[in-house]
Design goal:
61% helix, two-stranded antiparallel ribbon, disordered N terminus, 6 strands, alpha+beta, 9 helices
């Protein structure tokens, strides 16, 4: 076990090797200030450009199957909500106001939505129709997904992957660690380092997301009702410790604690 502890300690150190300490967003009202470590040879522009290509391929595939929805009422709702929420991104990072933001709806039963690096948003119709989402709840989803892009969680995850791979390939030889011990250590690294950070990223996205929605004039309580609906729709989900997402009860409690910080922003926006 001493060798595993030594491996974990050195893995943590090497996780920072070749990385730059950054904070991708302003803290704003919700106070997200966690320092992030980005691989120095993996730039924001590189990640954004790579994802933009994949995004266009996804849209082309959907269009070829007649699944790219640009005319329905829900497609129009998404565009209207997206315009208002995206207009708030400058409160967290000014350069994001110059991104090529896109919002698209794909006809699919999936309960899912995402915003990739550089502001490329996809909603799947199932999340709107199956959960009967209100505009406030759609804004909560959109704010959450936009927050992932603003915080560059995708680039951060890629940076961790580079560092962990370097640790795995380099430390085994340095310490003379056998394959069985390396496998145990890999599991410890995954649960002790990777997954908690993933849950942390989800919490950051929740907090920034409700502020974006509130500033856009959408009631931040929509995030609470959204996750209650999601909780009902995802019965039998894995335990929080084994998941990259916080348990719904934890998520709702965190949101309820943060809502008073952004409610004045919503009230001000509602008056405009």
């Amino acid at each position: 076990m001493a060798r595993i502890h030594k491996y974990l300690a050195l893995s943590g150190a090497l996780l920072l090797a070749g990385c730059q300490a950054v904070n991708t967003t302003n803290s704003s009202a919700v106070g997200v200030e966690r320092k992030q470590y980005m691989f120095s040879m993996l730039s924001t522009d590189q990640v954004n450009q790579s994802y933009a290509q994949a995004y266009q391929e996804t849209l082309q595939q959907a269009q070829s199957k007649g699944k790219l929805d640009t005319r329905s009422q829900n497609a129009k709702r998404l565009q209207a909500i997206g315009k208002r929420v995206i207009a708030q991104v400058g409160h967290f990072r000014t350069d994001a106001t110059q991104w090529d933001w896109q919002v698209n709806l794909i006809d699919s039963p999936d309960l899912n939505a995402n915003c990739g690096p550089g502001g490329k948003i996809i909603f799947y119709s199932g999340i709107i129709t199956k959960l009967s989402l209100t505009d406030d709840e759609i804004a909560a989803v959109m704010g959450h997904e936009i927050a992932h892009a603003l915080r560059e969680h995708g680039r951060e995850a890629m940076s961790k992957a580079y560092a962990l791979e370097f640790a795995k390939t380099g430390l085994g030889a340095v310490l003379g660690v056998g394959q069985d011990v390396m496998a145990i250590a890999d599991t410890a690294v995954q649960y002790g380092m990777t997954l908690p950070n993933s849950r942390g990223a989800e919490t950051e996205a929740d907090l920034i997301g409700i502020e974006l929605a509130a500033r856009a004039g959408y009631n931040p309580n929509g995030a609470v009702t959204l996750w209650r609906k999601m909780e009902q729709a995802s019965q039998g989900a894995p335990a929080e410790f084994m998941s990259t997402h916080p348990a719904s009860s934890t998520r709702i409690a965190n949101l309820e604690q943060a809502i008073p910080k952004v409610m004045p922003l919503y009230q001000q926006a509602a008056k405009r």
